[in-house]
Design a protein that fits this description.
By secondary structure, the chain is an alpha/beta fold. About 55% of the residues lie in helices and about 5% in strands. It has 20 helices and 10 strands. It has helices at about 10-20, 30-35, 40-55, 80-85, 90-100, 105-115, 115-135, 145-160, 170-185, 190-205, 215-225, 225-245, 250-260, 275-285, 290-305, 310-320, 345-365, 370-385, 400-415, 465-475, and strands spanning about 60-65, 65-70, 185-190, 265, 345, 395-400, 420-425, 440, 455-460, 485. The protein has a 4-stranded parallel sheet with strand order 7-6-8-9, with helices on one face. Helix 19 (about 400-415) links the parallel strand 6 and strand 7 (about 420-425). Helix 2 (about 30-35) crosses helix 3. The chain is globular. About 25% of the residues are buried.
């Protein structure tokens, strides 16, 4: 949401970088049409990006007769260049100044930015409008402390600027807490998640004497009854009492447990009965306010599939919903994202998934607060399930030459013997004995092929990689038309 308040020319440059990262090549006309500006403006923006954000000998964007593309995209970091553009925004810098100083030193901001006082006061009003829209400030001009902390963390992560400083000794103590969490939950936390949590932890120590955290009591009561709270509260209480030299308050324990609840964790599967993941499954599926079964039914109806027993679907949905439990989604005004691996799937599927979640919103009255990246991550996992087809159990080899059969059987057993049973085609076998998903490979036309009730595929029996891959597509069990590897999403 913050990007719509940015300077239009900088927001346009952000979009140009994103578009070219997502597409192998685009012309200035295509980019201009997408962004509703002239191709002359796009050409000028690209020149600015190369001249201002790159070394002369290593431009980010290059042109050819086919259009513009990212140079050496595989070896470059998109986020690095986006941060450069974000840091160029006076609005972003005004947000950061306000988050650090509450705009009590407006003259200092004007002096630091070399702008007039009137310009500084104007920027203050723009930032306050943004804060009200994302509900950091309510209609009574009261500040939501918890949302404010998440917003500060968002900007620090987005810009990679350390305006919340954490001492070396404090980092060591945080690391001990992370280790305790990993040990209890039998999981691993990413460096990104640890950095995110550390900022929120430090913010609590910096601000606890200035302002108090207030949480919805129903959410507090709900959390305190869970296994998650039971396991995590003990090490957190020990940590807080040690750091604060006294008894930890209930809202402080709740805040720290919430932070651990939104951290991405790589759980050890064999210990799932003990893990937080299992606790989430029980908690989310049984919480009346989430209407979990209704949501699953919406997906089953939309895609005409039974998904309740699919573990991939369950895990993806539970992780997607965990910020809805304890009203977490209402506490996070801007969503920063650490995604796992995702595939680029047809936009039509993404649209259908969005529609389901909006229907669910109407049932639960919980506002959806996930970015497009979260939706795409969820959809990329669901896509494999809705694309699953009945995989062949038997593969029959039909050829005029016995030597071709022997060679084919040798090769295919090595390649696919664990996926399917490989047989020589038997002309005496009754047609009714073939299953609809059996596969017959043949190298020349036979009259019987037209009467077979199963799958057939013509091959040369001199297998090259293309043919082996074609066979694999049949045996793999998925119809993956339209799916692409998304190497560059963040």
């Amino acid at each position: 949401m913050f990007e719509k308040y940015m300077e239009k020319d900088l927001y346009r440059k952000i979009n140009i970088i994103n578009l070219l990262w997502e597409n192998s090549q685009l012309t200035s006309l295509e980019i201009g049409d997408y962004l509703s500006v002239s191709n002359v403006t796009i050409i000028s923006d690209i020149k600015f990006i190369n001249d201002y954000y790159c070394l002369e000998e290593a431009p980010l964007i290059v042109s050819s007769s086919a259009g513009y593309s990212i140079l050496n995209r595989e070896n470059r970091n998109k986020i690095y260049y986006l941060k450069k553009v974000y840091n160029d925004s006076l609005f972003i810098r005004a947000c950061c100044f306000c988050l650090q100083n509450n705009f009590t030193k407006i003259n200092q901001f004007a002096k630091e930015e070399f702008i007039s006082k009137s310009k500084a006061y104007y920027m203050k009003e723009v930032v306050l409008t943004y804060f009200k829209e994302i509900e950091i400030i309510n209609s009574l001009n009261e500040v939501d402390e918890c949302r404010l902390r998440f917003l500060i963390t968002f900007f620090q992560m987005k810009l990679d600027e350390e305006f919340i400083k954490i001492s070396k000794n404090t980092k060591i103590e945080f690391s001990k807490l992370f280790e305790e969490f990993e040990k209890k939950e039998m999981c691993l936390l990413s460096d990104y998640s640890k950095k995110y949590a550390s900022i929120l932890f430090q913010l609590h120590f910096d601000r606890r004497k200035k302002v108090r955290l207030n949480f919805d009591q129903d959410s507090v009561d709900l959390l305190k009854k869970t296994k998650v709270y039971e396991r995590l509260s003990q090490p957190i209480i020990f940590f807080l009492e040690k750091e604060l030299h006294g008894q930890a308050k209930e809202e402080e324990i709740f805040f720290f447990v919430l932070i651990f609840n939104i951290m991405n964790a790589n759980y050890f599967d064999e210990a799932s009965k003990l893990s937080t993941y299992t606790s989430y499954v029980d908690l989310i599926s049984n919480t009346p306010a989430l209407y979990y079964n209704d949501l699953v039914s919406l997906f089953e109806k939309e895609f005409n599939l039974e998904l309740r027993k699919e573990r991939i679907f369950e895990a993806t949905l539970v992780l997607f919903l965990r910020k809805c439990i304890f009203n977490l989604q209402t506490l996070i005004p801007e969503e920063h994202v650490e995604l796992g691996n995702l595939a680029e799937v047809p936009e039509e599927i993404v649209t259908r998934v969005k529609s389901i979640f909006f229907q669910w919103n109407n049932i639960t009255k919980i506002p959806l607060a996930y970015s497009d990246y979260h939706i795409k991550y969820f959809t990329s996992k669901l896509y494999f399930l809705i694309s699953k087809k009945s995989r062949p159990k038997n593969l029959y080899l039909l050829t005029s030459f016995y030597t071709d059969y022997l060679l084919a059987k040798e090769i295919l057993n090595r390649e696919y013997g664990r996926l399917v049973k490989i047989h020589q085609f038997n002309p005496n076998k009754k047609l009714t004995e073939y299953a609809s998903n059996d596969l017959v490979l043949y190298d020349t036309q036979y009259e019987i092929l037209e009467r077979l009730p199963c799958l057939t595929l013509k091959v040369s029996y001199i297998f090259d990689l293309v043919e082996l891959q074609t066979i694999r597509n049949q045996l793999f069990g998925y119809d993956l038309n339209g799916i692409m590897c998304n190497k560059y999403a963040y």
